[in-house]
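Appendix B. Chain record.
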Amino acid sequence: MAIRTGDGVVGIEQQVLEVVKAVQGPLPDHWLLGDDKCDCVHQRIGEWTNPYTARTLQIRLCCVWKALGEMFPGFIQEVDAFYDDNLDEWVEEPRAWDSEDADMPVYLWFRQLARQTGRPLPDIRQEYRKRTRERPRRVPKGRGRESRVEPSMSDERVKVAHARRLRQSGWVVD
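Structure tokens predicted for this chain:
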């Protein structure tokens, strides 16, 4: 794909393509979320396809973000915690698998194990690739996340947290 709206845009596009090739190497047949073809914690695959032009654009956004972070370290923040929007607080421990719908995906299990043990993802992948039957399974109906009572906007803690965030962002002035 070539963008011809200005000299600088084409140059940037070429640089991004070079970064993608340098980070990922040659493109596989088809990328899928959870394919575990990179070590990124937050695997993200962008895909735009058009049957009328018989063209598909795939981009491993997670790898591009990683490369951009190396180029611009002041603009990337990686935090070893989960930010709970509802309560406006950080949660440092990985959540136990609590889906009623599916077993934990293997790629996510590998990353959870790496986080819990502090070991590198490639080591975890090597050790556990033939032990995938040990990964967390779906929980019985009535005991999963869908059945738990999550904080709602009627919960006073959530109201206080949201008001604090609105004040901090400048949307509400006291």
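Further analysis of this model is presented in Appendix C.
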